[in-house]
Amino acid sequence: MFRNQYDTDVTVWSPEGRLLQVEYAMESVKQGSACVGLRSDTTCVLGALKRSVSELSSHQKKLLEIDDHIACGIAGLTADARSLAKYMQTECLNHKYVYGTPIPPHQLMADLADKHQRTTQIYVRRPFGVGLLISSVDSRGVPHLYQTCPSGNLYEFYASAIGARSQSARTYLEKHYETFATCSTDQLIVHALQALAGCVSGDDELTVDNGSIAIVGKDQSFTLIEGDALKPYIDQLEQKADNDDEEGEEEKESEAMET
Amino acid sequence: MFRNQYDTDVTVWSPEGRLLQVEYAMESVKQGSACVGLRSDTTCVLGALKRSVSELSSHQKKLLEIDDHIACGIAGLTADARSLAKYMQTECLNHKYVYGTPIPPHQLMADLADKHQRTTQIYVRRPFGVGLLISSVDSRGVPHLYQTCPSGNLYEFYASAIGARSQSARTYLEKHYETFATCSTDQLIVHALQALAGCVSGDDELTVDNGSIAIVGKDQSFTLIEGDALKPYIDQLEQKADNDDEEGEEEKESEAMET
Amino acid sequence: MFRNQYDTDVTVWSPEGRLLQVEYAMESVKQGSACVGLRSDTTCVLGALKRSVSELSSHQKKLLEIDDHIACGIAGLTADARSLAKYMQTECLNHKYVYGTPIPPHQLMADLADKHQRTTQIYVRRPFGVGLLISSVDSRGVPHLYQTCPSGNLYEFYASAIGARSQSARTYLEKHYETFATCSTDQLIVHALQALAGCVSGDDELTVDNGSIAIVGKDQSFTLIEGDALKPYIDQLEQKADNDDEEGEEEKESEAMET
Amino acid sequence: MFRNQYDTDVTVWSPEGRLLQVEYAMESVKQGSACVGLRSDTTCVLGALKRSVSELSSHQKKLLEIDDHIACGIAGLTADARSLAKYMQTECLNHKYVYGTPIPPHQLMADLADKHQRTTQIYVRRPFGVGLLISSVDSRGVPHLYQTCPSGNLYEFYASAIGARSQSARTYLEKHYETFATCSTDQLIVHALQALAGCVSGDDELTVDNGSIAIVGKDQSFTLIEGDALKPYIDQLEQKADNDDEEGEEEKESEAMET
Amino acid sequence: MFRNQYDTDVTVWSPEGRLLQVEYAMESVKQGSACVGLRSDTTCVLGALKRSVSELSSHQKKLLEIDDHIACGIAGLTADARSLAKYMQTECLNHKYVYGTPIPPHQLMADLADKHQRTTQIYVRRPFGVGLLISSVDSRGVPHLYQTCPSGNLYEFYASAIGARSQSARTYLEKHYETFATCSTDQLIVHALQALAGCVSGDDELTVDNGSIAIVGKDQSFTLIEGDALKPYIDQLEQKADNDDEEGEEEKESEAMET
Amino acid sequence: MFRNQYDTDVTVWSPEGRLLQVEYAMESVKQGSACVGLRSDTTCVLGALKRSVSELSSHQKKLLEIDDHIACGIAGLTADARSLAKYMQTECLNHKYVYGTPIPPHQLMADLADKHQRTTQIYVRRPFGVGLLISSVDSRGVPHLYQTCPSGNLYEFYASAIGARSQSARTYLEKHYETFATCSTDQLIVHALQALAGCVSGDDELTVDNGSIAIVGKDQSFTLIEGDALKPYIDQLEQKADNDDEEGEEEKESEAMET
Amino acid sequence: MFRNQYDTDVTVWSPEGRLLQVEYAMESVKQGSACVGLRSDTTCVLGALKRSVSELSSHQKKLLEIDDHIACGIAGLTADARSLAKYMQTECLNHKYVYGTPIPPHQLMADLADKHQRTTQIYVRRPFGVGLLISSVDSRGVPHLYQTCPSGNLYEFYASAIGARSQSARTYLEKHYETFATCSTDQLIVHALQALAGCVSGDDELTVDNGSIAIVGKDQSFTLIEGDALKPYIDQLEQKADNDDEEGEEEKESEAMET
Hints:
Structural class of chain A: alpha+beta
Oligomer: homoheptamer
CATH class of chain A: Alpha Beta
Number of helices of chain A: 7
Main location (chains A, B, C, D, E, F, G): cytoplasm
Helix content of chain A: 25-40%
GO molecular function, one term (chains A, B, C, D, E, F, G): hydrolase activity
Radius of gyration of chain A: 18 Å
CATH superfamily of chain A: Aminohydrolase, N-terminal nucleophile (Ntn) domain
Pfam families (chains A, B, C, D, E, F, G): Proteasome, Proteasome_A_N
Largest interface: E-G, 45 and 47 residues
CATH topology of chain A: Glutamine Phosphoribosylpyrophosphate, subunit 1, domain 1
Largest sheet of chain A: 5 strands, antiparallel
Order of helices and strands of chain A: HEEEEHHEEEEHHEEHH
CATH architecture of chain A: 4-Layer Sandwich
Distance between the termini of chain A: 24 Å
Protein name (chains A, B, C, D, E, F, G): Proteasome subunit alpha type
Strand order of the largest sheet of chain A: 8-1-2-9-10
Number of strands of chain A: 10
């Protein structure tokens, strides 16, 4: 297809009714290291592969605390993600200050999605180049797993995975997600790590250094499990599996901008 | 036709007196999953096909409550639709707060259409890439079915369908709409599902999972019928019919920007 | 002529001293369905052909009440027309509120024409793609028929017609307009319908469904005549006449931007 | 000359030190119907050819009252002229309100010329496409005839003519202007009509319908002479003269932007 | 040289470190009719050639009173000059109002030069297309002759000439300027006219109609000498001299933007 | 790759999901002279190579005091760096004034990264062309070494090096960083200089003139070591080592915009 | 190199990490007439070649008083320089007014450099086309010589020279600068003139007319030495020296934007 004419401005429709700049921004998400999310009936677990830019650096934080009951995993442009995370943290504080209660997750999600949407319609900005997995627990203790993307779309998932080589993780999650509802937190963590293990690039491995787990749950405030605390779970992982033959399906998910 | 020169800016007329960017945005509506609406003398029913981006996700909401007496079905860019829905919900709340009565549907529609129109005339924005079917009941209990499109046009319909493969649904509705006036709510629902059934893509089917029905009526506040509640109606559906040979007519409707 | 360079921006003159974007917007008026206006010494009558986007929709409103003493017929982009009508209605309300008297039609017209003019001189907007026929009665009971066009020009007419195939109607009006001054309202309506009949496209006909008449007069507030009420007048219509050989003249009228 | 590069933006100089967009706007003036002005020691007379867009319309107003002591004749884009006239009328009212005296003509002229100049220097606007002849009487009863053009230049004339075929009128005025100082008002009117007569296009004629005269003078408030009141003067006109061989000189006047 | 890329925007440097748009604006100055200035130890004299756009018009004013002690001669775009003159007049009035004393000429000059400079650095404006010769007397009675140009540069001269064919005048002034210091006002006027005489185009002549002289001096408020008052001085003029062979040097002066 | 279309605007995504303008700005960092940073458990040391534009100039400052407990080393566009340093100094002062305590380093870093991020998303600005190494001590006395880059990314390092030929320094730091935790301040300084020595361009050498060291630590306010004070440390340096064969790896670090 | 794509906008990075518009602006500095600066331990001397646009004009001021203790020499676009000088003068006055003490030179320099930096990052402005040499004395009586350039960089020098043919002066200064610290003011002036002499263009000479010296020092307020006062120093000058063979090195200095 000849895309030249319609793909350098976010306020310009292509003749096929597509916003190409938004689709390009989605490519940025696919290049971030993988992030997975899954939930039982009481708990929501995020897992992520941390990258380090060099041997000398700490690993980049991939799982952020937004509030006691909300966590956020990122894939894509880190600077954009940090800016969005800060926005969410401020919204949470404001809500607590004004109403005295934690912000309802769905309300924060609606505001966040709107913030994305505006960058896809107004001339002077580019769309955010980041996808977010957001785990949360609402006021009744029910966990929710949300996913945003550069288009401003918002999805609720039973389980999901975004970022580089995430198709492998999605395949794993699709095989097992029906069993998650009644899993214990420990079981969920092992599932998350198992899914992540498939996203590690060829000659690397999931370790206590590059793995990271964040939990929010019914009676469980935001908890980050990294480093040695992660060791018992890593030890339970099965063999790294079938993540090679499925790469071809990768595009399917991110382009679904319409409903 | 050589469109290059006049189709990258919404503030530029083509020599034929057309706004090509608005027409491109209309293409986005045609790619959304189908949405139908129809009404009797007392009740207005919306039906929609929900898409799910993957096995792991919930189905996307397609029918939204705007107010007790107003519902909204969407086809096109979800993020734009959500932003417009939020606008309408706020308008309804403001009207209730200021006047103490529900907003008259035609007034909300006029404001909404104006909001669309502005994006087609001012430089720094793109037209919304979404079509809306809005069912409502006015203060005398009379139901109205409105349709908006990216051009800012506003139509009132006896029955309508928008989105992918919606020509099939329109054909069904044209055959039967003269009987709708006296239908019971249950009959309207079955008609809506029957129309929707023709819009399902080739190897798929209308089920309790992807179907969705929303009702507003004279003495009936907004009610959503999904999942198991939908089962009795699905069971009454006839065979999926003649949706193949009519695709060619699809363009007719959406390009009618002038009166 | 090679127009490329000067026709994509409303703030750019062509070397011939023309504003090509304004002329393109005028093309949009020619594509709207026809609208006619004519007046006697006491009454002003508008007539319009209503289009319906499908069998399922109501016909689009073409004749709008602006105030008790002002009516408006539109040809062109509906969304722009609605936005302008809303502006006029608000102006009328404001004038009544501030001065306690109906707005003098010529004053409303001057404000409206200015609103058009600004879109032809300032960078960030496009010209409106709509022509309006506005019938009104001033404080002395004298009827006026105004016409606006995208250039911001304002004309006063004895009788006029705009929109698709309107040349036929103009020819009819030119033949008879000298007799209008003393016509009764009923005679004016028949003249309006007769003129409209020539604007119906080839295989269609003027009926009680697609015809519409609006009256304002000395002692006559805005009155809309549609549907069955229109029947007695339709019945008096002569045969559809000579609208084929005159299409070639169609451009003459709308390009007259200078005086 | 290769003008392409420097002629689409009013804020861009051509390498020859010209503003081509301003020159293009001047072309618009040459396409308006003719307008002439001349003055004696006590009176200033404007004359204009009114165009009508069709047999059905009133003739367009070409001579406007700005204030009791100021009249304005226009050639070019009507919508721009009306917008400028409104500006002048408001300035006159404001001056009267603030100082209790009529605005001095030269002050109004300076403000008007500045309003033009700004559109030739600032990015977001186009130059006005209209030339104005403004007749006025100052506080000592001395008449002045001013001419503006799109460049923002302002000239004072003994007599002048602008618009289509105005070269003929200028030739006439140059032959006779030395006698104007002591003419009676009636004689001035006949001179104005005589000059106008040469500007009528080939197969047309100056009549009481398309002619128009406006007078302001020492003890003479703005007076418009049209229709039957114009008859006695038309009857005195000589034969239509020599307006054919001089068209070639037409460009001379309007391009003189520098002094 | 290949200038295309860097010469359509005033905010863009060419690779040679030049602002081509500013240089183009300087061309506009060279096309205005000539203006000369010279001063003795007590008096500053400006002389100008007035152009008239036609036989019917008054000659354009070329020498303007800014204040009692400041006069201004212009060459280039008249509309820009008038706008700048108005700015200076307002500054003079403000200074008098605030401080009760005439504005010091060098302070007005600094403000004026800054006003020019801004148009050469900010995106939305073009540089002024006019050069000014400004004669003034400071509070100690010392005369100053300033010259501005579109670049925003400001020069102080013993004597200068700008506009079309001004090289001839400059040659004359260079020959005689050393004698000016002790000249009487009458002698300065004759020198100014003598210099101007060389700037008249080939088949024209310096007369009481197109010549104009303005004087400000130690005990001499702004005085304009035109028409018959100019006759005694014109009569003293020598033969028109050597203005033909020196045109080639014309560019030298105006391009000196750097120091 | 064909980059032309997507690399001249920071608000435009390339089809691969990259922001090319941000990557180009990163090139600017690689051209600045080298800067290294490393820390023990109590102290953070920055080292930099100062460049002098000529023999006649002082060396440019490369290590700046932001606050008592925060220092900053720069590589890239000096003017941008100075502007960012000023911003940070102001933030530190404000925090002290409002809260009475030194600003927590991580909070300053988050604000700084946000300031970068905005220049990569909003139309009217370019990304900053500078990389910063920021050493700091938090309220518990723990040292932190941060690095920013034009993308708005923020990294925490054990040790790092940026600027021209910095790969050599990174190689040195990777070999020894495990021993840094327990180093004395003097040892850290020697390590920093040793790393820097590899970054000096071919025919030059690390001396007391071009070397510079800045220290912040647990009980150590910002201290700059330059000139003669640096002599004892320079004397301890080993031979300049292996910085030639590793240049090829240089790009690796700076392009890691995603996590 | 192919520079076309990245060199017309100051907010666009070239793929090599350069801001080409800033480099082009630097060319403007090289075209200004030369300016030198040097300092002893107590005094700072600026010298400049004044250009005159014609025999008739005064020489342009090249050395400006900013405050009692600050002087400024300019090379490049005069209008930009004057605008910056005015800015500095205002800052000095404000500081004196607010704090009652002279502004510390380094603080003024930081503000000035920031003013430059903003024009290199924000869309609507071009970089200043001028280089400044600024001599100053701080509150302890220590002289400082600063140099700014269009990039917003700020250098402190022992001695420096900018403008056309300034390489010759720099060569002279490099030979002798080590002796300047203990020079008397008279000796510094002779050194400055000696350096300047090498910058005079081929067939010209340094004279009391085109030379100019400005002094600020420990107990020495701003003093300008021009005309006859300069004679004794000019008489001491040696022969004009070796400025021909070194032109090739000219570019070296001004492009050093990074540190």
